[in-house]
C-alpha cells in the first residue's frame, strides 16, 4: 500500500504510464475549455509565496501557481508532475528524478534541475521549517544535466518520496531569488511558478484573481480561463454566496456544519469529503499528563470510554469523517485499526473512574474556538463526563487565548486537530516524542507524553528502508500509545468540499482544492 509500491530500481513503462495519467480516468464526460471558476477563500492568505508561508489559504491558492516534482493520488501513491519518472535505489539512499522537458516559469524562463537544487538545498532549507527537518537526511544533491536530479541521503528515510508536493516542496525560480533576501524579494507580491494558473490581481479584502497559463506544458490544460478566490469573512455570508450563485466551490470548513445539509439539498449541488488523505486531519483532546489526576492512566481511560464519539460524528459533523482508533488517521501510511479497545462504554468508564485516583476534582475543558460546531462538541463532552461521575467546566477562549493556554500547558483537556502529512514520521511522531514536549508550542507533544520505548521505535521506523519493517514498527507503536491513552482521540474529521455538479473534477488528488485546479472543467 501507499507510495512504497514504487520502491524499485526502475519504473516499468506500464507503471510510469499510470503515474503520468493520474486521476483523469475518473473524469465525468469530455472536458470543455473556457469559463470562470469562483471559489471561497477564508481566511485571506497573508501571502501567496508558498515557499515562505505554509498556512492553509496560502497553500490553496499557491497550489495553482506553484508545483513540485510529484502529485499524490487518494492512496498517497506518487504521480508525475514536474518529474516524469523517478527511481529509488535498493538501499533506499539514492533518489533520481527525470524532469519534464519544455517546462517554463510564468515569466518564460526554463525550469531545470538547477531550480530543483536551489529550491530544495537553499531556499526551502532556509525558509521552510518542515522541509529543513526533512533535508537533514540529505547528504548531497547532484544535477548531472538540466533534466536530472539525484538526491543522496545519509541513511534511508522512508517518507522521503512523499514530500514532493507544492505545500512542502514548491519549485522556486532560481533566477529570481538567488542572492536575494528571500523574505523581502519584490517577486513575493507577484508570485511566479510553473503551475497551470498565473497571478493577475489581488484586491485585499475582496478577491484574488488568477488567469490561465497559456504556456502550460500539458496540452489543453488548464481548461478554465480564470479562477477568482473570493474573500468572505463570515461563514453565514459564505453560505449565502453559494446559494445566490456568486461562488461555485465551498472548500472544506467554509460553512458551519449545521448549514451543510441545507446547502447540500440545493439543486445542482455535489459534495465530497475526499481530498484530505494527505493531511489526514485527526481531532483529539490533549490531556495534560502532568496534572493530577490526569497522570493516572485509569482516569484517562475512563475519559476515553466516556466520550460518545459516534454521537459527535452523527449530530455535529453530519455523519462525515470516521471515529478514530488511535494516533493515526486511516488515510496515513501504516495505519492499523486493530488497536486496544477505546470504544464508547460508559459503564466501563464509571468502573475505571471508581478504581482510579480521581477524587471529584474539576477538570477544565478548553474548547477549540473555531465556530459553533466546536463549542457544541465541548458541551457534549462535558455532558458525557458528567454522566460517568466527573466534574468539569468549559473554559471560554478566543484563538489567541487558546494558542497561549495550550502553549503554556494551562489546561486539563484541550480540543485540537492536526495534520499527519501522509506518514507517521512526518506528522504523527512530533506529537508523541518525548524530546518534543517543551512548553511554548501548541503543535508539539503538548500532552508531555513520555515513553522511552515508543521514542526509540519512532526514531528507528523513520529510517527503515523496508515498508514491511516500518509497518510492523508502527503497529507496535500504535498499540503501545493507545494502551497509555496520553490523549483522547475523537474523529478523523470530514471536511466536505461543496460544489456545483457542473464543476467537474474539482477534487482529484489527496490534497483536494489545495492541489490546484489543473483538471477542473465546467459543463455549462
From TrEMBL:
Primary residence: periplasm
Pfam families documented for this protein: SBP_bac_5 (PF00496)
SUPFAM superfamilies given in the database record: Periplasmic binding protein-like II
Signal peptide: 1-26
Protein family according to the UniProt entry: Belongs to the bacterial solute-binding protein 5 family.
Keywords noted in UniProt: Signal
Protein location: Periplasm
Native species: Sulfitobacter profundi
InterPro entries, alphabetized: Peptide/Ni-bd, SBP_5, SBP_5_dom
Gene3D superfamilies cross-referenced by the UniProt entry: Dipeptide-binding Protein, Domain 3, Periplasmic binding protein-like II
Protein name: ABC transporter substrate-binding protein
Entry keyword annotation includes Metal-binding: no
Keyword Signal tagged: yes
Solute-binding protein family domain boundaries: 77-432
Amino acid at each position: 500500500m501507499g507510495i512504497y509500491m514504487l520502491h524499485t530500481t526502475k519504473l516499468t513503462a506500464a507503471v510510469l504510464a499510470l503515474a503520468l495519467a493520474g486521476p483523469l480516468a475518473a473524469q465525468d464526460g469530455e472536458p470543455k475549455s473556457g469559463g470562470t471558476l469562483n471559489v471561497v477563500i477564508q481566511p485571506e492568505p497573508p501571502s501567496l509565496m508558498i515557499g515562505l508561508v505554509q498556512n492553509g489559504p496560502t497553500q490553496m491558492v499557491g497550489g495553482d501557481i506553484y508545483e513540485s516534482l510529484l502529485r499524490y493520488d487518494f492512496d498517497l501513491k506518487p504521480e508525475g508532475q514536474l518529474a516524469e519518472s523517478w527511481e529509488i535505489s535498493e538501499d533506499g539512499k539514492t533518489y533520481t528524478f527525470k524532469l519534464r522537458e519544455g517546462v517554463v516559469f510564468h515569466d518564460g524562463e526554463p525550469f531545470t534541475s538547477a531550480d530543483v537544487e536551489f529550491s530544495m538545498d537553499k531556499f526551502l532549507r532556509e525558509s521552510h521549517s518542515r522541509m529543513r527537518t526533512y533535508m537533514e537526511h540529505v547528504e548531497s544533491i547532484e544535477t548531472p544535466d538540466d533534466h536530472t536530479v539525484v538526491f543522496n541521503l545519509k541513511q534511508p528515510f522512508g517518507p522521503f518520496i512523499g514530500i514532493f508536493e507544492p505545500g512542502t516542496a514548491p519549485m522556486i525560480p532560481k533566477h529570481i531569488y538567488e542572492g536575494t533576501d528571500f523574505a523581502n524579494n519584490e517577486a513575493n507580491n507577484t508570485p511566479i511558478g510553473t503551475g497551470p494558473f498565473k497571478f493577475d490581481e489581488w484586491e485585499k479584502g475582496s478577491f484574488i484573481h488568477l488567469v490561465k497559463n497559456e504556456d502550460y506544458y500539458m496540452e489543453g490544460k488548464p481548461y478554465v480561463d480564470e479562477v477568482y478566490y473570493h474573500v468572505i469573512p463570515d461563514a453565514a455570508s459564505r453560505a449565502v454566496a453559494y446559494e445566490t450563485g456568486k461562488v461555485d466551490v465551498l472548500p472544506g470548513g467554509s460553512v458551519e456544519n449545521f448549514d451543510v445539509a441545507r446547502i447540500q439539498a440545493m439543486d445542482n449541488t455535489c459534495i465530497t469529503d475526499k481530498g484530505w488523505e494527505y493531511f489526514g486531519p485527526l481531532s483529539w483532546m490533549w490531556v495534560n499528563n502532568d496534572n493530577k489526576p490526569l497522570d493516572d492512566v485509569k482516569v484517562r481511560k475512563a475519559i476515553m470510554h466516556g466520550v460518545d464519539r459516534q454521537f459527535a460524528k452523527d449530530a455535529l459533523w453530519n455523519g462525515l469523517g470516521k471515529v478514530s482508533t488511535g494516533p493515526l488517521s486511516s488515510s496515513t501510511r501504516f495505519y492499523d485499526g486493530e488497536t486496544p479497545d477505546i470504544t464508547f462504554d460508559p459503564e466501563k468508564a464509571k468502573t475505571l473512574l471508581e478504581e482510579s485516583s480521581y477524587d471529584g476534582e474539576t477538570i477544565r475543558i478548553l474548547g477549540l474556538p473555531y465556530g459553533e460546531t466546536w463549542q457544541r462538541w465541548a458541551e457534549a463532552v462535558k455532558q458525557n463526563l458528567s454522566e460517568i461521575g466527573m466534574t468539569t467546566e468549559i473554559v471560554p477562549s478566543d484563538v489567541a487565548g487558546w494558542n497561549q493556554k495550550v502553549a503554556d500547558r494551562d489546561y486539563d483537556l484541550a480540543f485540537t486537530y492536526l495534520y499527519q502529512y501522509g506518514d507517521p514520521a512526518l506528522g504523527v511522531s512530533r506529537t508523541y516524542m518525548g524530546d518534543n514536549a517543551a512548553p511554548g508550542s501548541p503543535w508539539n507533544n503538548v500532552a508531555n507524553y513520555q515513553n522511552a520505548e515508543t521514542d526509540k521505535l519512532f526514531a528507528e521506523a523513520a529510517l527503515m528502508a523496508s515498508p514491511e519493517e516500518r509497518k510492523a514498527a508502527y503497529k507496535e507503536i500504535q498499540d503501545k500509545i493507545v494502551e497509555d491513552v496520553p490523549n483522547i482521540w475523537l474523529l478523523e474529521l470530514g471536511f466536505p468540499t461543496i460544489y456545483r455538479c457542473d464543476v467537474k473534477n474539482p477534487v482529484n488528488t489527496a490534497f483536494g482544492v489545495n492541489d490546484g485546479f489543473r483538471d477542473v472543467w465546467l459543463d455549462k
